[in-house]
Automatic annotation (TrEMBL):
InterPro entries: ANF_lig-bd_rcpt, GABAb_receptor_plant_PBP1, Glu/Gly-bd, Ionotropic_Glu_rcpt, Iontro_rcpt_C, Iontropic_Glu_rcpt_pln, Peripla_BP_I. Belongs to the glutamate-gated ion channel (TC 1.A.10.1) family. One of its GO terms (molecular function) is ligand-gated monoatomic ion channel activity. The keyword Methyltransferase does not apply. One of its GO terms (cellular component) is membrane. This is Glutamate receptor.
Length: 916
């Protein structure tokens, strides 16, 4: 019953298609459609592809829902590893009415045949030609049904960056596939500030001698990260020679592109010698998610190989893509017929006009090749390799790779790479369901067993035993030779910087052959900016000396960790300020003296107001009261005031003021002691700001970056800048001064200035450092040596060696010049604003309370007056008289007025009674 129901469904579907075609007047489908294939049958990829293509053709022809009566016929041609035969066979196919060609196997042949495919409009569909340049607009009829090598190179570049490496060596076959793949690798590495430091091409058909010669050159390079981009059939010999030369041991990293995984998947396990030569290598494999379709094809594989008599080998990724390629074409052919497409060919008149005996006129144009091509590119299906769709650039969507580590007789999957989320230990199809996340935290791979059975990540570079010495430039200084200088009549150098560099190199875990080369004319200091540019240009491998780490330089070179702090400072002549008649006035600034004096008078007046009505000591004639205020005010400075305070408000104000006086007096004493006992230096130049505003000449050291900084960053005219070559020139120019052809100040880096001031007591640093930097050693961009030396410099700092080297060269005790500035010992108003504010608020509040008390008392007194119609002026005079009176007198007057008022009221009553 089930089979009968299935037959009815097929019949209904067939009748529906026929009726649909009849309704649209579609032409009848041909009995067969021809497809050609070109690959090498006996290659690693070709053996698998042949079986997979035949299996796919059988499956398509056995499915009545695909071509619906049309048989798919595939004609195969063996190129037998010959590019010439591949081209000839491709031309022959063009004369046999094929609608598409599967292949060719190699990118090199695809480049050639694609031109013919464009002319004759026959799609060229390849599952193994992965050259990135084949996706260009130049080849519209080329369709790639596998992953583009551009993504494989992106995966490798992310792996290199993930492990912290910078330089890579690329070994490749010198053909279109190899060159273009390595070019794509270089582009992807540069995006991550990495690079290919050495390219090693091998000619097609290379010999063991060719490989040996190349690997000897590779061994002399610094990088130990080797990317092997080859074709699978002959590439294992490279590993064999590398193993023989000892290049598969500790420190080396070998990353093979997809060819190695194709061999291991198809032919493994390999023989013991070959297996031993690839231990620890990394390789990539185009990722195909697990599915029922894939599992079914793998389970059938043994029977398929037996049926084709192809021998024993396993299915690899290229076989999966070859299988899906047939299905892509089958679906495209079906869509082509549903759209009314007709398989027809016409001769190319230009080929008929061509002279010769090549029989080119046999080739014909596929009339509706463009329609068929568009149907191929519109593929939307799920195959054994997963979802199949093409993006706008003609590449398959969701490019992804498995990352494999060769261990023992097999491989271990250490992670995945996808264009969607980068490196991950989670399968890409799982991540497609989540938002893309390429943060560094999410970039993960499992641990790797590296060559030499090491689990420690290789550093990625070494100094080779047979490599040349590093050429290290050293500035040949003529001044401040303590830092770096050439030994007379020799090419050797010495100094603080040299000792630091030598000590750091000695801490490295590997030998660093180097040669120090003095650079300069011996007459004046060389330009440090030019030396840095020479390192960036490759004239030297590095530079050692007193090189300041500044922004402009870090854009073109790398610096090590600073080994000494530095920064620009201003040096000016100072004069000693001896004690004078008015030295006692120096502790306070003029503003502070004035404010302090005002507060003495203010507090005296406030206390007088608060004590005047009740304290006899604050009463008397006006002249006596004025003297009392002045005396009381200034006597509090010595806590010698004899007047007692009796009011609560007066005592409160006085306590607060005495606290302020105590602090002012203590500060004054301390400052005066410092001024009178410590040598004071003064100069009109207070720092860089006053130097800029002075418009006077400024000196700088020849070769220093100070010149550019002053002119470009601070916009000081170059006419104000004067070149000085030595400490003696500094002293002479500063002694002369700006009026006599000298300079007002010198701007230089702190280490030089400290050395200069150790023997020059007439000069001092004015102000603070106005730049912050340090000195480091110079190396080309992305040099691994700069990182390792930085670690060594930190170790020198921690173990005290850096300080000992400093003391050896730079410690001087010849001059103990004081650099104390008068202004630094003077006390400013800002230091006491808080105290004065508290005292002022206390005085204000006390006066406010006192005023309301007086108003209240006066209102009581005034309400008792018999005549309330007096004018305001009289009332104000009365209030002032009330405030000026002594409190006891005011009370007695008030009682007297009350008595007089009561007597008047009683007399008025008596008079009124007698009249009545």
């Amino acid at each position: 019953m089930a089979m009968r129901a299935f037959g009815v469904m097929v019949l209904v579907l067939y009748l529906g298609v026929v009726s649909e075609g009849a309704g649209r007047n579609l032409p009848a489908r041909p009995p067969a459609v021809n497809i050609g294939t070109i690959f090498t049958f006996n290659s690693v990829i070709g053996r698998v592809a042949k079986v997979a293509i035949n299996a796919a053709v059988d499956d398509v022809n056995a499915d009545p829902t695909i071509l619906r009566g049309t048989k798919l016929v595939v004609k195969m041609q063996d190129s037998n590893f010959s590019g010439f035969l591949s081209i000839i066979e491709g031309l022959q196919f063009m004369g046999t009415d094929v609608v598409a060609i599967i292949g060719p196997q190699t990118s090199m042949i695809a480049h050639v045949i694609s031109h013919v495919a464009n002319e004759l409009q026959v799609p060229l569909v390849s599952f193994s030609a992965t050259d990135p340049t084949l996706s260009s607009l130049q080849f519209p009829f080329f369709v790639r049904t596998a992953q583009n090598d551009l993504y494989q190179m992106a995966a490798i570049s992310e792996m290199v960056s993930y492990y912290g490496w910078r330089d890579v060596i690329a070994i490749f076959i010198d053909n279109d596939h190899g060159r273009n793949g390595v070019s794509a690798l270089g582009d992807k590495l540069s995006e991550r500030r990495c690079r290919i430091s050495f390219k090693g091409p091998l000619v097609t058909g290379f010999t063991k001698s060719d490989v040996t010669d190349l690997l000897i050159k590779v061994a002399q390079e610094e990088s130990r990260i080797i990317v092997l981009h080859m074709e699978p059939d002959f590439a294992l010999s490279v590993f064999s020679v590398a193993h023989y030369l000892g290049m598969m041991g500790n420190g080396y990293v070998w990353i093979a592109t997809g060819w190695l995984s194709a061999i291991l998947d198809s032919l493994g396990p390999l023989d013991p010698d070959t297996t031993a030569s690839i231990q620890g290598a990394l390789t990539l494999r185009m990722h195909t998610p697990d599915s029922k379709k894939k599992s079914a094809l793998i389970s059938r594989w043994g029977k398929l190989t037996s049926k084709n008599g192809a021998g024993t080998f396993r299915l690899n990724t290229y076989g999966l893509y070859a299988y899906d390629t047939v299905w892509i074409l089958a679906h495209a052919i079906d869509s082509f017929f549903n759209q009314g497409g007709v398989v027809s060919f016409s001769n190319d008149s230009r080929l008929h006009d061509a002279e010769g005996t090549l029989n080119l006129e046999a080739m014909s144009i596929f009339n509706e090749g463009n329609l068929f091509l568009s149907n191929i590119k519109k593929a939307n299906m799920v195959g054994v390799t997963g979802p199949i769709q093409f993006d706008a650039g003609g590449d398959l969507i969701h490019p992804a790779y498995d990352i494999l580590n060769v261990i023992g007789t097999g491989v271990r999957e250490i992670g995945y790479w996808s264009n969607y989320s980068g490196l991950s230990i989670v399968p890409p199809e799982t991540l497609y369901e989540k938002p893309p996340n390429r943060s560094s935290v999410n970039q993960q791979l499992h641990n790797v067993i590296w060559p030499g059975d090491s689990i420690t990540k290789p550093r990625g570079w070494v100094f080779p035993n047979y490599g040349r010495q590093l050429r290290i430039a050293v500035p040949d200084r003529v001044s401040y030779r303590e830092f770096v200088s050439r030994v007379k009549s020799t090419d050797s150098v010495k100094g603080y910087c040299i000792d630091v560099f030598s000590a750091a190199v000695n801490l490295l875990p590997y030998a660093v052959p180097f040669k120090l080369i003095p650079v300069g004319n011996g007459v004046e200091n060389p330009s440090y900016t030019e030396l840095v540019n020479m390192v960036a240009a490759g004239a030297y491998d590095g530079a050692v000396g007193d090189f300041a780490i500044i922004t402009n330089r870090t854009r073109i070179v790398d610096f090590t960790q600073p080994y000494i702090e530095s920064g620009l400072v201003v040096v000016a002549r100072v004069k000693k300020m001896n004690s004078s008649t008015w030295a006692f006035l120096r502790p306070f600034t003029l503003k502070l003296w004035c404010v302090t004096g005002i507060f003495f008078l203010l507090v005296g007046a406030v206390v007088w107001i608060l004590e005047h009505r009740m304290n006899d000591e604050f009463r008397g004639p006006p002249k006596q009261q004025l003297v009392t205020i002045l005396w009381f005010s200034f006597s509090t400075l010595f806590f010698a005031h004899k007047e007692n305070t009796v009011s609560t408000l007066g005592r409160l104000v006085l306590i607060i003021w005495l606290f302020v006086v105590l602090i002012i007096q203590s500060s004054y004493t301390a400052s005066l002691t410092s001024i009178l006992t410590v040598q004071q230096l003064s100069s009109p130049i207070k720092g860089i700001d006053s130097l800029i505003s002075s418009h006077e000449p400024i000196g700088y050291q020849v070769g220093s970056f100070a010149e550019n900084y002053l002119s470009e960053e601070l916009n000081i005219p170059t006419s104000r800048l004067k070149r000085l070559g030595s400490p003696e020139d500094y002293a002479r120019a500063l002694e002369l001064g700006p009026d006599n052809g000298g300079v007002a100040a010198v701007v230089d880096e702190l280490p030089y200035v400290e050395l200069f001031l150790s023997t020059q007591c007439k000069f001092a640093i004015r102000g603070e450092e106005f730049t912050k930097s340090g000195w480091g050693f110079v190396f080309p961009r992305d040099s691994p040596l700069s990182v390792d030396l930085s670690t060594a410099i930190l170790a020198l700092s921690e173990n005290g060696d850096l300080q000992r080297i400093h003391d050896k060269w730079l410690t001087r005790t010849g001059c103990s010049s004081q650099t104390n500035d008068l202004e630094s010992d003077q006390l400013h108003l800002n230091s006491f604003v808080g105290l004065f504010l508290i005292c002022g608020i206390a005085c204000f509040i006390a006066l406010l309370i006192y005023f309301f008390m007086m108003v209240h008392q006066f209102s009581r007194h005034y309400s008792e007056q018999p005549d309330s119609s007096t004018s305001r002026s009289v009332r104000l005079q009365t209030f002032l008289s009330f405030v000026d009176d002594k409190e006891e007198d005011s009370r007695s007057k008030s009682k007297r007025r009350q008595t007089e008022s009561s007597m008047e009221r009683s007399m008025n009553k008596q008079n009124g009674g007698s009249c009545g």
